[in-house]
């Protein structure tokens, strides 16, 4: 089978898939940390950006916020609880949709939302198909990097695709012919300088996904945060093995075959492809920047007062500052993660999150 098919089964098989089995994926007991795991300030600052979007759209009711890949529900809880306290007008207009494909995960999210007192504000859905066109914002954080990818290499001057096969009860990869001409077209467009023996990932699901979102967005925004870059900085000679990695126990490696379904498989996002696919579906770019610059711009107005909770000790405040540093550090999450906002029906929009890109 193609590597794309193998990756799809590993991650999304209804019974054995990494994202559907219901185990802890993030946090201390999981395999990696996401920004919402670190501190509520991530959701709080994005709520400020969301409220600005709502204002720019002349405050529609409802303003639908669709979180795609809601994970453990931490982001939703922090976003909603803080909005209710700090942005009551925005909160009143808010229609929050949390999408998570796994039934067990949705149940766990529901419990967490109930404990936070915001369950009545959220619609939990398994996929985008159940949403009719809305005005608002489609949001994802570390979602596109988990879409299955085809893997392509160059052998003897020709493009070859990586397949997965079983030999003597062991999984291994072998090169074969390109399974779809669209894969070769993707490489020709975004990674045409692929060297002999080098590898590159082709994320066609990301292109399909952004077009499906465009069909559901009557007016508003698409906010995508993920690790990756524009194609000219992503597909470079210093990445001969591409960006595909396996994550297990907070350790990254290239062992994709030892524990299928128990290991996260992920590849950096080609934001150029998302932009191109969005444009073909009527979405225009509102801005592109690093997570560092985006969060700094949103926190600058009140000097990151959103970082603290009432009654915190000096030690607790110091711990909060250290977590913020992890979110914005240019040597880590701050520069690896990028922020793309696309829009429909919002001419000449200027968003605070892109202040340092102007």
Please explain how this structure is put together.
The structure is a single chain. By secondary structure, the chain is an alpha/beta fold. It has a single domain (3-357), classed as Rossmann fold (3-Layer(aba) Sandwich). Helix content is 36%, strand content 25%. The chain has 13 helices and 15 strands. It has helices spanning 3-12, 35-38, 41-56, 74-86, 88-93, 103-115, 181-190, 204-216, 231-234, 271-280, 291-300, 314-328, 333-336, and strands at 63-68, 94-99, 122-125, 134-141, 150-155, 158-167, 170-176, 199-202, 217-229, 245-248, 251-253, 264-266, 269-270, 284-290, 337-344. Strands 1, 2, 3, 4, 9, 13, 14 and 15 form an 8-stranded mixed β-sheet that branches. Helix 3 (41-56) packs across helix 4 and helix 8 (204-216) packs across helix 10. The longest helix is centred in the first third of the chain and has 16 residues, at 41-56. The model has no long low-confidence stretch (mean pLDDT 93).
């Amino acid at each position: 089978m193609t590597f794309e098919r193998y990756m799809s089964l590993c991650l999304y098989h209804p019974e054995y898939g990494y994202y559907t089995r219901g185990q802890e994926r993030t946090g201390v007991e999981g395999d990696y940390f996401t920004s919402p795991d670190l501190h509520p300030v991530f959701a709080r600052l994005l709520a400020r950006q969301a409220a600005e979007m709502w204002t720019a759209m002349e405050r529609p009711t409802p303003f639908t916020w669709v979180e795609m890949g809601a994970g453990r529900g931490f982001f939703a809880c922090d976003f909603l609880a803080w909005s209710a306290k700090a942005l009551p007008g925005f909160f009143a207009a808010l229609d929050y949709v949390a999408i998570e494909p796994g039934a067990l995960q949705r149940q766990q999210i529901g419990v967490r939302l109930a404990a936070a007192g915001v369950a009545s504000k959220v619609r939990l859905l398994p996929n985008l198909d159940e949403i009719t066109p809305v005005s608002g914002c489609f949001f994802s954080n570390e979602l596109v990097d988990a879409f299955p990818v085809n893997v392509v290499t160059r052998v003897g001057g020709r493009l070859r695709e990586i397949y997965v096969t079983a030999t003597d009860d062991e999984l291994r990869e072998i090169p074969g012919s390109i399974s779809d001409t669209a894969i070769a077209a993707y490489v020709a467009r975004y990674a045409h300088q692929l060297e002999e023996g080098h590898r590159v990932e082709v994320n066609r699901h990301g292109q399909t996904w952004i077009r499906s979102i465009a069909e559901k967005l009557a007016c508003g925004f698409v906010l995508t945060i993920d690790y990756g870059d524009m194609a000219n900085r992503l597909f470079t000679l210093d990445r001969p093995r591409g960006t595909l990695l396996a994550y297990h126990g907070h350790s990254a490696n290239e062992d994709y075959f030892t524990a299928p379904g128990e290991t996260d498989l992920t590849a950096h996002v080609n934001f150029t492809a998302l932009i191109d696919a969005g444009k073909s579906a009527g979405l225009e770019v509102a801005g592109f920047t690093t997570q560092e610059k985006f969060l700094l711009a949103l926190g600058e107005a009140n000097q990151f007062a959103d970082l603290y909770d009432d009654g915190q000790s000096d030690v607790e405040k110091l711990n909060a500052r250290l977590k913020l540093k992890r979110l914005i550090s240019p040597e880590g999450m701050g520069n690896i993660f990028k922020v793309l906002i696309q829009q429909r029906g919002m001419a000449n929009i200027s968003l605070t999150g892109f202040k340092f890109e102007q």
